[in-house]
Amino acid sequence: MRIEQSPEFQIHLQNLRSKEPLFLETIYNVGNGHLGVRDSNPLQGNNLDYIGSPGLFINGFFDYNDVSYGEKYTGYPESDQVINRLLDPRYIRISW
Questions:
Q1: pLDDT attached to residue 25
Q2: Residue 69 located in a structural domain
Q3: Which residues, in sequence order, are bridge partners of residue 57?
Q4: Contacts of 49 (CB under 8 A, 6+ apart)
Q5: Cα end-to-end span (Å), the chain
Q6: What DSSP line would sit under 12-63, residue for residue?
Q7: pLDDT number for residue 37
């Protein structure tokens, strides 16, 4: 498998419209289209007060849930999908 090297397929930090941590966390998530560790502050660790969503995500692997409305409306979705978040491999501690 050949990885595309063309500049039009590359994401460069200096060219992004926002430097906000949550935006950067999202843009670099599954950029390769297959598997992504969501970018986040590596110093935050397992801090539950961190407002981001660090973790490991697999593109195309979703949970589907039915959406119910009072009536059936044209154009309204019948189900929603949420990308699954797996364990963040950067913060796994193994001890024995």
A1: 72
A2: yes
A3: 36, 85
A4: none
A5: 39
A6: -GGG-S---HHHHHHHTSSTTSSEEEEP--TTSTT-TT--S--EEEEEEEEE
A7: 65
Q: What is the domain range of residue 22?
A: 7-89
Within a domain: 20: yes
pTM of the predicted structure, to 2 decimals: 0.44
How many structural domains is the chain composed of? 1
Which tens digits make up the pLDDT trace of 14-71? 888 888 877 777 766 655 555 666 666 666 656 667 777 767 777 677 788 898 888 8
Mean pLDDT calculated for residue range 71-86? 84
What distance in Å separates the CA atoms of residue 94 and residue 83, rounded to the nearest whole number?
A: 27
* C-alpha dihedral sign at 18, 61, 87, 80: positive
Q: What is the distance, to the nearest Å, from the Cα of residue 27 to the centroid of all Cα atoms in its chain?
A: 8
User: Residues 84, 64: contact at Cβ < 8 Å?
Assistant: no
Residue 15, in any domain of the structure: yes
